[in-house]
Amino acid sequence: MIDFHSHIVYDVDDGSETIEQSIEILKKAEKAGFTKVILTPHYMEDYYEFPASEIEEKIQLLRQKCQEEQINIELYQANEIYITNHMIDFIENNEATTINNSRYVLFELPMNEEPPNLLEVIYQLVENHKVPIIAHPERYAYIQKAPNRLLELIEHGVLFQTNYGSIIGQYGKEIQKTAKLLIEHNFIHFLGSDVHHEGYIYEKMPEIREQLRKIIDNEKIEELTTENAEKVLQNEEIEVEMPEKIKQGFFKKIFS
Fold this sequence. Notes:
With 256 residues, this protein is of the alpha/beta class. The chain has one domain (2-238, 247-255): Alpha-Beta Barrel (TIM Barrel), CATH 3.20.20.140. The chain is 43% helix and 13% strand. The protein has helices at residues 19-32, 52-69, 87-92, 118-127, 141-145, 149-155, 164-167, 173-184, 205-215, 218-233, 248-255, and strands spanning 2-3, 36-39, 42-43, 74-77, 80-82, 104-108, 131-135, 159-163, 190-192. The strands form two sheets. The chain has a six-stranded parallel sheet. Strands 1-2-4 form a three-stranded parallel sheet. Helix 1 crosses helix 2. The radius of gyration is 17 Å and the shape is globular. Mean pLDDT is 95; it is low at 250-256.
């Protein structure tokens, strides 16, 4: 498996604080069955602004430490960028990075209100030959209320990543129900831990996989946990199958 979203790079955001903590997290990732981890520290304008070169140095140290500790995990550099009209500038100036220097860009949105510049940012990315990937849509209140909003975004070339923890209720019942609904109706293209600290999520992978098997078949699980992420790392195109529109009855059932 490939972990598509993580905060394991130490001392750069609200994730791991020390290299020792990072190594302990990676040991648990390996034990859970991950062979590759995409490192996606936050890049947030005027808040988390560690340049890509500094992140790369820390990742090199992590790789060396993994070798010493015999942790068989490959590490790849990226960012989870908070939505901004300056995203392309940050990437071109090597302040923030795409996933493994590919065309794919992971970014996140505000939790409670849809940003008015969302489509503008998507257009900017696509015009600059980038593929937008929005992190954990199930966690956004406005998507919970209207999941079919994602249909329009997919038509504009957007892909989506759901958190493993959402599937088992780590962030609450509404988010859990939304995550399962999005996965079941083919809105999601990647799964990631969004791990910030040692403990909880990697240890829960058997339970998470059990829940996934109730929603989708093994072939689809492989696609979401490994195959699509590998295509991103290799900068290959992902064939997107349009989702099935969620019927209104589901909304009433979920949000009543």
